[in-house]
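Box S2. Input/output pair 1.
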Amino acid sequence: MCSVYETMAYHAFVMDEALRSYLGDTESNEFVTIFNFDGWVLRQGLQFTPRVALQIVDFVLKSVPIRPAAFHLVNAGSIIDFMMRIFKHLLPTKIQNRIFIDSNCAQLHEHLPPEILPKSLGGVLENEEAFRTELPDKIRSQEEFYQKLIEFSD
């Protein structure tokens, strides 16, 4: 299990590569994020302190040139639901209205059709079809690019 900061760093690389690989060719800069809490344990949830949660929101809203269209928290359970009810009030109203707590996949399907979702979320797609599994390899192949960024910042 990774720390929440290692997970954030990983997703920063994935988001950077996704921006350059996919969103650069489209006119839209919107995205929908699905957080599947199925299988989460309390120890993982305790890493998301209010400070960490605000850092994540700050990163997504201020540091990345994309527009969050929606955030879906699926299989969140009562603890996550309670925490989000409190945390949402710290966010701008526009973002609050884009957060959906879906206690099961059927509720998620009210917003997103099963045809674009993996089977793990009650959809019809296999993981290979639903997830951009090539992104980690693309990130690793960009080592020279990231090395130049490090040199540039020194």
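Box S3. Input/output pair 2.
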Amino acid sequence: MQGKDGTRAYVSGKFTAEGLVEDTSGLSHADLLGIVEWNNFYKKQYTFIGRLVGHFYDEAGQETAALKDFQRRLNEAKSAKSSDEDDMRRYPPCNFEYKQGQGRRIWCSTLSGGVQRSWAGYPRQYFQPGKTDPRCACVKESGAPSGSEPLSEHDNRGDLDNPLMKLYEGCHPESYECRFTE
């Protein structure tokens, strides 16, 4: 009996002859992490019986350069995920509401984005490095800027002066919520 590696199919959903390919180059960080989740699922459900010779393992069962490259990219994906999680805690997502005929409202509270904290923050457009579109973030309005040393000198404006944060047009700079009518 001969097996076929379909690693890429677990994230593409293409379990056809064309989709069952072992090459994972070009996959996103989320895709790589998804492959690992599938692998962990199958490890729990099935008994290991061997390795498939090919892209990731040679005839002696040894790792190939392709597997080592996958593992390197997977470590990058894990690091990026950890960095994104830290970023979400530092700049939690805003709450969002839309009502037809009225428009949308964004606001910050001490539990915005599911992140419990002692401050609510002001809504700002957050232009994250490496991302193409800004996201709404609740920005700390007082105290030291995020990431600064606790005893460093600062203007007690939190992250309001962060150059990656931009005030929403039509929103008061010291408001916990912004409304945008249709």
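Caption for Box S3: The first strand starts at residue 95 and ends at 99. The longest helix spans residues 65-90.
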